[in-house]
Amino acid sequence: MNIDFKTLAEKYQTPYYVYDFDHITKQYEELKSSFRARKSLIAYAVKANSNLSVIKHLADLGAGADCVSIGEVKRALKVGIPSYKIIFSGVGKSDDEITQALELDILMINVESAAELNRVEDIAKNLGKIARISIRVNPNIDPKTHPYISTGLHENKFGVDIDTAKRMYIQCKNSEFLEPTGIHCHIGSQLTQLQPIKDAVKIVAELVKNLKAIKIDLSFMDVGGGLGIIYDNEKLIDTYEYSQSILDAMFGLDVTVVCEPGRFIVGNSGVFVTKVLYEKVNGNKRFVIVDGAMNDLIRPALYNAYHKIEVLNDNKNLSDCNLVGPVCESGDFFAKNIQLPQTNHNDLVAIYSAGAYGFTMASNYNTRGRVAEIAVLNGQDRLIRRRETFEDLIALEEEFIK
Ligand code: LLP
């Protein structure tokens, strides 16, 4: 990544997120080409980074979209992802969202419970439409990742077990308003081991074969997202081995393979850049206080996630400290007990691997405006979301105080 953080800070102020769009292209192409011998759809998981320019960049490369709200579906459509490449997942879709998804004629609704299938059937019937259905199977597999981002065990709220899925497919087959179209599983995020994915895909492929035997022919097999990235020194899953093991499990099945990477596409492309406000020592604990905070990047506070951090000065004099923000919470930290050089007011601090679940999880806590987002493509920088102003933050409340 060849990005001049200082120049960007002068131009756009801090804090900001910057995304290397060339890296996004590289990640997309690497995954897409690993499935080359096969019909495939890379449906980018919009939740990872839903900036319109990011989605548009991926749309131009040919990506589809995996969405978890009708808002995400609309973002994808807005930047030109065709409806036939859009999947709508999520354990709690509202009637209104289901109605809109049917009206927008997306590729498939990924249904996560028997009760939801009944709702979709009723709504499709009322609209006089046929709903293309995919069912999210929960294969009861431990993905060996952080418990908060693990989803493929029965103790997690996602998907349905195999037997329920079978019954639901039979309901689809027997309904005038439902069309069994796909199958889906996603066992968790930031996966660094291939075996749990292989185990899950095998279970799903087996079900596809069993369904075929009872004349339910699915067209899409969606293996979810979850490919891990480098935050620290993780050993990653090789994309070629990943795709080959999926294709092996699908041997003999004439289905299009779908995967839904989010973090893999955008995670390592993004850096959160903040600047030092002050240093202080409480007792014998050193704190470096920056202008960014947990409301901008919540992963350290929420998951105790590690992000590589670099202070952009030449000082070699390292000592232990906590890197913290201005928010009024003890949980407002980017790193605890980290060795950082002595800093000066306005030194920049880069927090890496922040392209996924960074900005999208940001909030306005403490009436802090969300930060600017910048894209760098071919060495050119471009503002892709301006910093929020105080006026932006109060706009929806103002009329009620008159
Ligand atoms: N498909 C489904 C159904 C998902 O639930 C997710 C992520 C993905 C695809 C994309 O997963 P990825 O390829 O990005 O791992 N906020 C957490 C991650 C939550 C992931 C939620 N689901 C974090 O910051 O680590």
Automatic annotation (TrEMBL):
> Which key words are in the record?
Amino-acid biosynthesis, Decarboxylase, Lyase, Lysine biosynthesis, Pyridoxal phosphate
Start and end of every Orn/DAP/Arg decarboxylase 2 C-terminal domain? 17-355
Q: Which residues bind pyridoxal 5'-phosphate?
A: G226, E260, P261, G262, R263, Y357
**Name of a matching Pfam family:** Orn_DAP_Arg_deC
Oligomeric state and interaction partners are given as: Homodimer.
Q: Which family does it belong to?
A: Belongs to the Orn/Lys/Arg decarboxylase class-II family. LysA subfamily.
Q: What does this protein do?
A: Specifically catalyzes the decarboxylation of meso-diaminopimelate (meso-DAP) to L-lysine.
Listed name of the protein: Diaminopimelate decarboxylase
